[in-house]
Amino acid sequence: MTTASLSGxxxxxxxxxxxxxxxxxELVRLLKKSGAEVMSLLTPAGAEFVTPMxxxxxxxxxxxxxxxxxxxxxxMGHIELSRWADLVxxxxxxxxxxxxxxxxxxxxxxxxxxxxxxxxxxxAPAMNVRMxxxxxxxxxxxxxxxxxxxxxxxxxxxxxxxxxxGEFGPGRMAEPAAILAAIQGLLTGPDGRPLAGRRAxxxxxxxxxxxxxxxxxxxxxxxxxxYAIATALAELGAEVxxxxxxxxxxxxxxxxxxxxxxxxxxxxxxxxxLPADIAVMSAAVADWRVDGVAxxxxxxxxxxxxxxxxxxxxxxxxxxxxxxxxxxxLVIGFAAETSDLEANxxxxxxxxxxxxxVGNDVxxxxxxxxxxxxxLFTKDGGADVWPRQSKTEVARKLAARIxxxxxx
Length: 408
Ligand code: CTP
Known about the structure:
Layout lengths: L9 E6 L5 H13 L3 E6 L9 H8 L10 H6 L2 H7 L2 E7 L1 H9 L5 H8 L3 E6 L3 H5 L1 H12 L6 E3 L3 E4 L5 E5 L3 H13 L10 E6 L3 E5 L2 E4 L5 H12 L3 E6 L11 E4 L3 H10 L5 E4 L6 E3 L19 E3 L3 H6 L8 E8 L3 H12 L3 E6 L9 E8 L4 E8 H17 L1
Parallel strand pairs: 1-2, 1-3, 3-4, 4-5, 8-11, 8-13, 11-12, 13-16, 16-17
Antiparallel strand pairs: 6-7, 9-10, 14-15, 17-18, 18-19
Helix pairs in contact: 1-2, 1-9, 4-6, 5-8, 10-14
Cytidine-5'-triphosphate binds next to helix 12 and strand 16.
């Protein structure tokens, strides 16, 4: 059995109805022990075998039980929950749940969540041996495994042995330790961590350029998109350094955040953390700084406001993109534009010498928002339009593209 840490990984556990449901409690305990965060969803049939109280106590989170519960939907809606997870596990997966999933039925919370998720699903089937061997169940499992272009279904078990009903054969749910090993394989194996062994440097947030000790020039940026990208890269196994300007965001777990203020500090930290395989420069760097920062507070004077002499800041992205032995294999910039997105982004891509550029139309509710609409332009002429979605989803898409790039 593998012992890979699941620290920072999120598992949504759907507990179906069956005598094996009691083993789901042990599975939660093992998952928590290996560092995973677990949320659970209990079907009405599942609730005949284990109580929501046990699941809530072990997971440390409220248990979701019904599709139409206003108080649940205001906390984390079931669609959001299905996206929150890195992996959805169904244990026990009954013949009924498998049939619904295989046929796209969505008439309750569990089946709706299974249809809505954009993550891999691990099924731990548990049912009577005749049921398991029934061609309808076998066809449903095969159907789920065969869906093309789908994020995928994996199956662990069932085991062979004596069953609660007294019959013998395959149908017993896999033991919790075996389900845990399957989860670890999916989340931390080559499939789950395709960027393991890769180093990434990500810039995020604005920079702040002082005028005097109390004033400064800055840019509009919450840092949310850059932080989400750093997090998504770390989730895929990359070793990430996040060089961040002043933002009000907590440091994501599992990566190295370095605080900076000015563009020159940001540039120095980026350079210090090269070589790297991947550079994503998402910071909104102030293009200019004040020439001759005043050592004391500039006072209002009868002659009117002072005039500020500005000088250009170094271009961090262009510097990182320069050919040389410390150039990352993949350099990605951002183009924040208010008009002519494609033309401006492509011009920026070639001017700065990066490989990809994320074109970001900032004319429409982007700063500080949780959603973003972007187009990824690549040096070879490609353009991938990603309509408005959460910044986390944009980040995960970008991280997946980066992983594909290295796989190829
Ligand atoms: N960038 C950088 N260093 C700078 C300015 C920008 O690294 N001094 C990076 C940003 O992090 C982003 C990309 O360059 O990845 C484009 O930033 P943007 O502000 O859109 O472009 P500018 O170079 O500032 O061009 P312009 O202001 O003319 O649009």
